[in-house]
Inverse folding.
């Protein structure tokens, strides 16, 4: 922003905060307005949203810089006082004009009354020039904004990143955790008391476990769904280091074929080929998880 540009908005009004608002209040107000006017959330009026988002960002820059904010407060106070004086003089000017119109209709208009009228007019002109003189304070504010633009506002950058992160989280599909953070484990045949409770007890120390499906068929294995990638990575590392009595199941195509026969014998050749990619394998594991969950629910319903 160059010094020749005009500050055509009030940062306090734009963020809807008072002059005595704290920095935390200003940041909270920025987050609210930034989420409201982010261009990606206003596709129907993207140009207007972009302009508003820029003004909101500049408002945060001004109100979080002590020097720029002090200059802005000084300017606001001076304008308010000048406005009151101008309104008072404007009221006197209207009254004087009415009096002059009456006196002009008379033949004996006194010379001193004309001189008084010119004095009042001169006072009005003085106020107008005084208002224009506030460009000095405006230049001070523009100087601080230019300095912030060059140096980079850390607060603005951090808050923008938080807004972008929140928007990305809102766009993220709800089922992404089951597709991205799934781990398949095995255990030795000598372990006969493996249960969902035992598996949770062993793996929840690495992070939140959203779901556990245990297959007790001919090929014994279990599928765990974690709430985060970090938890899944720690669990896999524990299996590799023998820190838990389980081992990470390999991704050999032969094992996937055997698992497919026990869960869905009607899978097509195209689905098998799709599983040879990482994305296809994740969908494959998610499908197994869903089917085994449905089978467990049906089994519980039958027992009841």
């Amino acid at each position: 922003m160059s010094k020749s540009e005009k500050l055509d908005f009030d940062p306090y009004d734009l963020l809807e905060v008072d002059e005595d608002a704290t920095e935390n209040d200003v940041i909270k107000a920025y987050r609210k307005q930034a989420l409201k006017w982010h261009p990606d959330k206003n596709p129907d009026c993207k140009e207007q949203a972009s302009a508003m988002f820029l003004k909101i960002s500049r408002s945060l820059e001004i109100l979080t810089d002590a020097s720029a904010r002090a200059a802005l407060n000084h300017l606001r106070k001076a304008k308010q006082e000048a406005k009151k004086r101008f309104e008072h003089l404007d009221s006197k000017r209207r009254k004087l004009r009415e009096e002059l119109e009456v006196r002009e209709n008379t033949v004996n208009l006194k010379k001193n009354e004309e001189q008084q009228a010119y004095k009042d007019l001169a006072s009005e002109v003085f106020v107008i020039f005084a208002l224009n003189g506030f460009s000095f304070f405006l230049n001070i504010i523009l100087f601080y904004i230019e300095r912030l633009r060059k140096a980079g506002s850390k607060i603005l950058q951090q808050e923008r990143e938080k807004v972008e992160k929140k928007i990305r989280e809102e766009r993220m599909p709800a089922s992404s955790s089951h597709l991205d953070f799934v781990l398949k484990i095995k255990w030795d045949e000598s372990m006969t008391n493996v249960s969902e409770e035992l598996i949770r007890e062993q793996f929840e120390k690495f992070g939140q476990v959203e779901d556990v499906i245990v297959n007790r068929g001919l090929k014994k294995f279990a599928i765990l769904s974690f709430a985060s990638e970090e938890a899944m990575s720690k669990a896999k590392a524990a299996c590799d280091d023998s820190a838990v009595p389980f081992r990470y199941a390999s991704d050999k195509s032969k094992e996937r074929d055997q698992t497919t026969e026990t869960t869905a014998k009607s899978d097509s050749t195209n689905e098998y080929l799709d599983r040879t990619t990482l994305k296809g394998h994740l969908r494959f594991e998610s499908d197994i998880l869903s089917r085994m969950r449905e089978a467990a629910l049906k089994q519980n319903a039958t027992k009841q």
About this structure: The chain has 13 helices and four strands. The longest strand covers residues 209-215.
